[in-house]
Amino acid sequence: MSSYNVNEMKSNSHRHKDITRLILYYFKKHPLFFGCGFFSIIASSVFSVIIPLMLRDAINVLEQSGKASQLLNYALMIVGLAVASGIFKFLTMELFVVVSRKIEYDLRNEFFSHLESLDQQFYQNNPAGDLVSRATNDIEAIREIFGPGLVGIGAALFMSAFSLILMYRVDPVLTGYSLLLFPLLSLTIFLLGKQVQKRSHIVQRQLGNLSAFVRESLSGIRVIQAFAKENVRIQRFDRLNKQFIDSFMRMARIWELLIPTVFLISGIVLIIILIEGGRRVIDGVITLGAFVAIIYYLRLVIWPLAGLGWVIGTIQRGIASHKRLREILSYQPTVVSPGKADELSGIRGKLEFRNLDFGFESEGKILKDISFKVKPGSKIAIVGPTGCGKSTLLSLIPRIHPVSFGKIFIDNVDINSLDLAQLRASIAFIPQETFLFSESLYENIVLGAQSDVTQERVREIAKVAELFDHRKAFPDGLNTIIGEKGVTLSGGQKQRVAIARALLKDAPVLVIDDAFSAIDSSTEGKILENLSAFWKEKTVIISSTRLSTIKDAKQIIVLDEGGIVETGTHNALMSKDGLYAKMYKKQLLERELEKS
Amino acid sequence: MNQYYHEEEKLDKAYDSRLMKRLLKYLKPYKKYVISAFLLLAIASLLKLAGPYLVKIAIDRYIMAKDYEGLVRISGIFFGLLLLQFVVRYAQTYMMQLTGQMVNYDLRMQIFSHLQRQNLSFFNKNPVGRLLTRVTSDVQVLNELFSSGVVAVFGDFVTLIGIVIVMFSVDWKLSLVTFISVPFLVLATILFRKRVRDSYRKIRLRIARVNAFLQEHISGMKIIQLFAQERKVFNKFDSINASLKDAHIKSVFYYAVFFPVVELIGAVSLALIIFYGGSQLLKGAVTFGVLVAFIQYAEMFYSPIRDLAEKYNILQSAMASSERIFKLLDREPEIVSPKDGVKPEKLKGEIEFKNVWFAYEDENYVLKNLNFKVNPGETIALVGATGAGKTSIINLLFRFYEFQKGNIYIDGIDIRNYDIQALRRQMGLVLQDVFIFSGDVTDNIGLGEEIDDDEVISVSRYVNAEKFIKKMENGYKSRLQESGSNLSEGQKQLLSFARALAFKPRILMLDEATSSVDTETEQLIQEAMHKMSEGRSCLIIAHRLSTIRNADRIIVMHHGEIREEGTHAQLLKKQGIYYRLYQLQYKDEETEVAGNQINK
Question: Hey, are the CB atoms on A129 and B215 less than 8 Å from each other?
Answer without folding.
Answer: yes
